User: Which sequence fits this backbone?
């Protein structure tokens, strides 16, 4: 194939892939916001009171709506069910059905979460040395809006979107290293969507704005790790487990009061749930697979599959070959 043809095909794959990623993220935001907004906007009387007393109903609406989008509508939009791919292959590409080796898959998910939560507790300790206090309060994860169930939404659907779908698509056109970096950045900056909360009733404060900006930083760091974990294990299960456990139990580890807010959030971002724990988890996974590699299996397949799979390095290789031929 001529260099010009490869460059055209590569540009076409870039355009298709990034257009699909933007569309998927846009749909994710819509489902994230619209169902609950409509419920709160148009509910009235006894029904509104019922919703306020049973917040899990709003959660169920959003959770089910997102499941319909990602697991039913999206396969059609990606031309999988009616094209060359079966629904079984769609789930296989998501790596949501890969559970073996069980001990390694489950162990990495649980261990990475334990490391983050332990360091978050240590960060809370450091943050209260100068001023403030830490309080272990089990009631923070109980009640009507318990993170034990609300964390299922980001734990499952964010991993399906960012690792199962978007990372798999990035691997069609980039190297593993570049795909992991891009995926982590996308995951981190996507959390700027929380700024929309200010449009839907959340009072604006400098502290809340700073919290979101720091969330981008530590979400990016942990996004790098989850992308690396997905590539190494070729399974979505470890990141789902880890993501859920962190979101569900984090509040128990960082339940502090009367602290220096800015000092605490810096410590939390670097030591607690961001940079430092991500480096440790990356090292553990890397060493594990270096010392005890899994047997080779089929590589992560693009979503949707393409007859021609071209990466950036292909253009370089062809260009070099042409130069050698010229010589």
Assistant:
């Amino acid at each position: 194939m001529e260099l010009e043809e490869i460059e055209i095909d590569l540009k076409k794959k870039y355009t298709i892939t990034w257009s699909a990623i933007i569309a998927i993220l846009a749909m994710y935001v819509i489902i994230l916001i619209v169902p609950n907004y409509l419920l709160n906007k148009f509910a009235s009387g006894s029904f509104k009171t019922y919703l306020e007393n049973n917040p899990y109903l709003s959660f169920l609406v959003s959770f089910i709506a997102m499941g319909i989008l990602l697991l039913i509508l999206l396969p059609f939009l990606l031309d999988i069910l009616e094209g060359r791919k079966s629904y079984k292959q769609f789930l296989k590409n998501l790596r949501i059905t890969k559970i073996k080796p069980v001990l390694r898959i489950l162990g990495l998910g649980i261990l990475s979460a334990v490391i983050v939560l332990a360091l978050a507790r240590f960060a809370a300790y450091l943050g209260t040395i100068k001023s403030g206090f830490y309080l272990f309060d089990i009631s923070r994860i109980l009640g009507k809006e318990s993170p034990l169930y609300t964390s299922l939404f980001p734990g499952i659907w964010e991993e399906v979107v960012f690792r199962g779908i978007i990372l798999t698509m990035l691997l069609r056109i980039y190297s593993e290293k570049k795909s992991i970096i891009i995926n982590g950045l996308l995951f981190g900056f996507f959390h700027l969507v929380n700024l929309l909360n200010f449009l839907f009733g959340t009072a604006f404060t400098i502290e809340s704005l700073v919290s979101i900006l720091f969330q981008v930083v530590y979400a990016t760091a942990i996004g790098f790790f989850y992308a690396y974990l997905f590539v190494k294990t070729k399974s979505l299960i470890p990141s789902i487990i880890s993501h859920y456990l962190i979101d569900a139990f984090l509040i128990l580890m960082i339940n502090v009061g009367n602290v220096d807010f800015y000092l605490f959030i810096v410590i939390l971002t670097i030591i607690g749930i961001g940079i430092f724990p991500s480096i440790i988890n990356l090292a553990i996974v890397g060493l594990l697979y270096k010392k005890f590699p899994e047997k080779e299996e089929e590589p992560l397949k693009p979503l949707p599959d393409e007859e021609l799979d071209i990466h950036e390095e292909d253009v370089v290789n062809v260009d070099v070959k042409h130069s050698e031929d010229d010589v």
